[in-house]
Amino acid sequence: MMAEDDLLIRQRLPAAVYDLARRLGANPEMRRTTVKLKQTGRMKQRLGATSWMSFTATQTIDTCECAFDWRARVGPFGMISVRDALKGGQGRLDVMALGVIPVARAERSSALMRGELMRYLAELAWAPDAILFNATLRWREDGPHGLAVSAGVGETAAEVTLSLDNEGRIAGAFAPDRPRSATAPILPTPWRGRFSDYRRHGNMWLPFAGEVAWEIDGKETVYWQGQIEGWEASDDGA
C-alpha cells in the first residue's frame, strides 16, 4: 500500500516538487499529519514602529489541509497574547491583553482568508510533509530556481512563489499582493519571507531562522524575525 501511495503522489505532483519534498526529508511512507513548532523572536507592533517586542510562540501546522494555529505571548511578562490561525476554512487573528481583554480582532473576510492561506503556503519549509500530502495545493514551476504554489478558489485564491537556494532548499517565499488589511482598503502589497540556518533535525532539513517583510513604495520593512526552538511531527494530530 505504501508503494501505491508513493506512486499516486508522484503522479499528482510535478517532479521538481516531489524532489523538493524528498530533499527536505519528507517520506511518503511516513504520513505525519501535524507539525508542532516552538519559536522565539521579535516583532513590530505596527509597520512604522522603530522598536521591537520579543515573543515566544507555539504553532501547529496541518500537513493534509491548509490549516495552522500560531499562539504567541508578546511584550513584557507576555502580557499580550496573539492568535493567528487558519482553521476550518476560516482565518482568525485575535489580540488579547492579560488573556481576557480584547485588544484587536480581525473580522472574517476573503482578504483575511487570502492572507492566512499565503502564510500557510510560505511556511511549507517548516512542514515539508505537506508538500507530499496536502492534495489541495496546486503547483507549477516558476523558472529554474522557483516553484509557485497556490490554494483556495475565487476571492480567496492565493499564490506564493518559493525560491530555492543552491542546495535546492526553500530560501524564500514571495507574494506580490498579500492583503495588508482584512477590511477595506485591502492594500494588496508585496510580501516576502526568508529562511536561513538550515539544520538536520532527525531525517528532516529545516530552516531554524526566518524573517518576514512588506515592501512599501519600493522600500522593504522587516516586521517579524524568529528562531525555531523545537520541532516535532506526529501522525495522530495529538
Describe the structure.
The protein has 238 residues and is of the alpha+beta class. Strands 6-5-4-3-2-1-13-12-11-10-9-8-7 form a 13-stranded antiparallel β-sheet. 16% of the residues lie in helices and 50% in strands. A hairpin with a 4-residue loop joins strand 7 and strand 8. It has one domain: outer membrane lipoprotein receptor (LolB), chain A (Clam), CATH 2.50.20. The protein is built from four helices and 13 strands.
Which overall shape is indicated by the principal axes computed on the Cα atoms? Answer: globular
What would you say the CATH architecture is?
A: Clam
Distance between the termini: 24 Å
Average residue-wise pLDDT: 92
How does the major sheet shape up? Answer: 13 strands, antiparallel
Q: The CATH topology is what?
A: outer membrane lipoprotein receptor (LolB), chain A
Reading off the top of the CATH hierarchy, the class is best stated as Mainly Beta
Biggest sheet strand line-up: 6-5-4-3-2-1-13-12-11-10-9-8-7
Low confidence ranges: none
Oligomer: single chain
Domain count: 1
- Percent helix, as a range, is 10-25%
- The sequence of SSEs as H and E is HHEEEEEEHHEEEEEEE
How many helices in DSSP terms? 4
Radius of gyration in whole Å, from Cα? 17 Å
Structural class: alpha+beta
